[in-house]
Amino acid sequence: MLVLLDDSPGSGYDLVQRFRFGIGHFWNATHQQIYQELKKLHAERLVQYELHSQEERPDKKVYCVTAAGRRGLAAWFAEPVKPPQARDALLVKLYGGTRRNLPALIVELEQHLALHQKQLGDYRNLEALYFSQDDAGRREHRLPYLTLRRGIRYQEGIVAWLEETIALLRDDALPSAPVPSARAKAAARPRKR
Amino acid sequence: MLVLLDDSPGSGYDLVQRFRFGIGHFWNATHQQIYQELKKLHAERLVQYELHSQEERPDKKVYCVTAAGRRGLAAWFAEPVKPPQARDALLVKLYGGTRRNLPALIVELEQHLALHQKQLGDYRNLEALYFSQDDAGRREHRLPYLTLRRGIRYQEGIVAWLEETIALLRDDALPSAPVPSARAKAAARPRKR
DNA sequence: TTGATCATGTAACGTGTTACATGATTAA
DNA sequence: TTAATCATGTAACACGTTACATGATCAA
Question: How far is CA B180 from each of CA B52, B94, B184, B187, rounded to the nearest angstrom?
Fold first, then answer.
């Protein structure tokens, strides 16, 4: 939330929108959590707000990061972060799916496939939007775009895996070994460090 | 945990090992959480245990799923699950990294790259182990293998993205648009549903 | 004698989710 | 009149993490 508010000030409701549409693919929070966290950050003097009365709309509290908040942010950026650990219930089902209702499992995998295809399409539209900018805009939004790119790759990965997995289960086939050529190719051009 | 115990009975310590080495790439839990959860499941009569005294070793509680536990499991399998929502702090840093210490960020991305390459290597070794089995074994462990395959794809995706991102940041380059040929190819063979 | 492995737990805390709660405007 | 959007919150609970705690065996 500090990163978002440091980017530009906004109300709680505003942050909800940004979580939903901007950075939802790598961080999310409900409005309840956001309002409570804003209260906490305010108590810690890391953010402050101005009341904006509006005609025809409820009042807004527009939050921004304080000097202490910016120090906190800088400190956070200096600390290393840990990779997230996944908790994917669908994979738990698949793992434990032996001698269970396979057709039902396949249906659920298909539902997830549809969801991820939709997500992927949305992300690609956002990507097109990014590339419709001029060079100055592209440079400015370069880092947020790279996070979008991660989201796209992630969804592509899931979609490909789901398609492959569904096909395999439907045909009751045994998985085939990975193609060695692709792997050898990857090993043949090691990255400089 | 019910899925794991249904697969085969085991002690708390045993479950710790399975989380670490078996299914760690899509679900994890610390030993503290596992012991508390076992206590809870036992209070709900979903699992039961037998005490196994051992020479030269502390006593073991070997847990297994009760009939009620199996009913609970079946009910859980029948309910749809939600895709996990990611919370990736590294992406938050990248997103908010504009006008911050880029070289430091690149170093951190490289550290993560090394971690993920290591993970990927480990998973590929497990994969080789799977394919070293005969057909019967492959059939039996088919579903767990498919979850491993997901882990491999996931790590491959991260590694590729990290390499691309690090190279781009290091060269201070603008991202280039995705290759349309690859995407057209993907669209040209739509999946039957 | 130091650290790893086997084996089990409790307590405190912090984070996140669900349910409950209000109230105005606007488009279908 | 129904649902969506704008706009804000509280309370209770569930879940997860960190710290604390013990104690034996075995290999380096």
Answer: 62, 26, 6, 10
A119 touches strand D (CB under 7 A): no
Query: What pLDDT, in 10s, does the model give residues A134-173?
Result: 999 999 999 999 999 999 999 999 999 999 999 999 999 9
Nucleotide whose C1' lies closest to the alpha carbon of residue B16: C7
Query: A61 in helix, strand or coil?
Result: strand
* Strand C and B28 CB separated by under 7 Å: no
**Shortest-distance nucleotide from B33 CA to C1':** D16
At B121, which helix (H) or strand (E)? helix B102-131
Q: What is the DSSP track for B78-104? A: HS--PPPPP--HHHHHHHT-TTS-HHH
Phi first, then psi, for residue B62 (nearest 5°) are -95, 115
- Rounded Cα distance, B35 and B27, in Å: 16
Q: Which residues contact B6 (CB under 8 A, 6 or more apart)?
A: A96, B65, B69, B70, B73
Contacts of A59 (CB under 8 A, 6+ apart): A51, A52, A53
Q: How many CB atoms lie within 10 A of CB B13?
A: 13
Q: pLDDT by residue (tens digit) across A101-121? A: 999 999 999 999 999 999 999
Chain D, protein-covered positions (CB within 7 A): 6-11, 16-20, 23-26
Q: Give the CA distances from residue A130 to residues A126, A134, B139, B161, in Å, rounded to whole numbers and listed in that order.
A: 6, 9, 46, 18
Whether any strand C atom is under 7 angstroms from the Cβ of B36: the reply reads yes
Q: Is A147 on the interface with B (CB under 8 A)?
A: yes
Q: Which of residues 44-103 of A touch B (CB under 8 A)?
A: 73, 77-78, 80-98, 100-101
Q: For residue range B55-67, list pLDDT tens digits in order.
A: 767 789 999 999 9
Which residue does chain A place closest to B25, by CA atoms? A86
Contact criterion met (CB below 8 Å) for B150 and B26 = yes
| B16-55 pLDDT tens trace | 999 999 999 999 999 999 999 999 999 999 999 999 887 7
Strand C contact with B18 (CB < 7 A): no
CB nearest to B94's CB, from A24, A89, A143: A143
